[in-house]
């Protein structure tokens, strides 16, 4: 029996998640919520550029709540806790890349109650945060003892991230520096990345200050830069660096950093990605010291097809669905779930041979 899955929102992550559900042997797509009025009433197959699937898109929360489904992959622009609570209360497990990675008991008390009321589970996941900022540094730390420092760092050229709303409203590109530095972005990002830092701190048992230090820097364009937002003009924000650090005696013991650049040619300060280019880097200092560099989750300018990191983010959500559906109700983090893996392609799967 397949698990019945609803996709919530059909941006980059949503479209990739639908394709992932269709490729997963244990999952079936039964519903889809869309934001744009132009997508309402259309067959979801058409929305993802494929043949009809017999699933019609709706923009009604009530329709989705009323649906017989096991799980919702929730990937809108910004999370709405009331929506998530309604989905949970209706008995649907929710898997999402937009929050609840490692929430504090206090901040998530209401939504946890909704999950318990609906006998459902909420699980936050993703890539960064939700993978390379937390889960994978923790996995690699298992190969070291006496750990003194953990670092997770992303180096990305965001000219391939075709999500103008996320770039502008979540990441703060294309604004004047003052607005970017004082706007709500830091708080929005803090939500995810501070939880990533705290997960590592708690799991590894660092006696860190409970307040995670968050700092940010901006670089501005020195010449017009073509970007998914349109042209970023000289003086507008075209590079962002955020650091989130857990401290013991004012010294960082866990640090998550993102380096988000709109190319390397026209920035002031003249930030670069370094000779190794786009990558995720993880470092564990202990016995022994470990550095791991992961490439392959970044598209390059000129590549066709969806951004690889977005497909990876969606895959992590999709592959988590069976474990989340099998888990006890409440809010469960990746520390609570068993190992999540990908699945064999249909033509190589056991039951097909
Ligand atoms: N944790 C991670 O590693 C990770 C990685 C990537 C992305 N994310 C997060 O995942 C989310 C989706 O990213 P994406 O790349 O798919 O972005 P995207 O391509 O811009 O898609 C955003 C989606 O949100 C919908 N939307 C726009 N305005 C909305 C509103 N006011 N209310 C509800 N929905 C709205 C859009 O609808 P239409 O399509 O109808 O316009 C679209 O389906 C973002 O929050 C992003 O930060 C997390």
UniProtKB/TrEMBL annotation:
It comes from the Bacteria. Gene3D superfamilies: NAD(P)-binding Rossmann-like Domain. Coiled coil: none annotated. InterPro entries: DAP_DH_C, NAD(P)-bd_dom_sf. This is Dihydrodipicolinate reductase, family protein. It comes from Mycolicibacterium hassiacum (strain DSM 44199 / CIP 105218 / JCM 12690 / 3849).
């Amino acid at each position: 029996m397949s698990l019945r899955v609803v996709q919530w929102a059909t941006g980059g992550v949503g479209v990739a998640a639908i394709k992932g559900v269709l490729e997963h042997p244990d999952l079936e797509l039964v519903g889809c919520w869309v934001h744009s009025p132009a997508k309402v009433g259309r067959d979801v197959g058409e929305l993802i550029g494929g043949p009809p699937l017999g699933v019609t898109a709706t923009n009604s929360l009530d329709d989705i709540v009323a649906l017989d489904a096991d799980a919702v992959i929730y990937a809108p622009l910004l999370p709405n806790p009331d929506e998530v609570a309604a989905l949970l209360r209706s008995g649907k497990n929710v898997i999402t890349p937009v929050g609840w990675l490692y929430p504090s008991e206090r901040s998530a008390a209401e939504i946890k109650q909704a999950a318990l009321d609906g006998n459902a589970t909420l699980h936050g996941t993703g890539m960064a945060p939700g993978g390379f900022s937390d889960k994978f540094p923790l996995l690699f730390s298992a190969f070291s003892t006496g750990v003194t420092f953990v670092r997770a760092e992303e180096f990305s050229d965001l000219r391939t991230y075709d999500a103008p709303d996320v770039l502008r409203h979540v990441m703060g590109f294309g604004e004047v520096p003052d607005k970017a530095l004082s706007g709500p972005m830091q708080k929005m990002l803090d939500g995810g990345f501070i939880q990533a830092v705290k997960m590592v701190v708690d799991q590894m048992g660092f006696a860190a200050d409970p307040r995670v230090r968050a700092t940010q820097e901006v670089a501005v364009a020195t010449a017009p830069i073509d970007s998914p937002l349109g042209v970023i003009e000289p003086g507008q924000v075209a590079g962002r660096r955020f650091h989130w650090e857990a401290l013991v005696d004012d010294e960082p013991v866990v640090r998550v950093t993102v380096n988000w650049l709109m190319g390397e040619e026209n920035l002031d300060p003249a930030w670069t990605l370094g000779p190794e280019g786009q990558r995720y880097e993880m470092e564990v200092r202990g016995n022994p010291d470990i550095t791991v560099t992961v490439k392959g989750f970044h598209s390059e300018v000129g590549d066709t097809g969806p951004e690889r990191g977005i497909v990876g983010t969606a895959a992590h959500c999709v592959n988590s669905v069976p474990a989340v559906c099998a888990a006890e109700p409440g809010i469960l983090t990746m520390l609570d779930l068993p190992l999540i893996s990908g699945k064999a392609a249909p033509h190589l799967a056991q039951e097909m041979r």
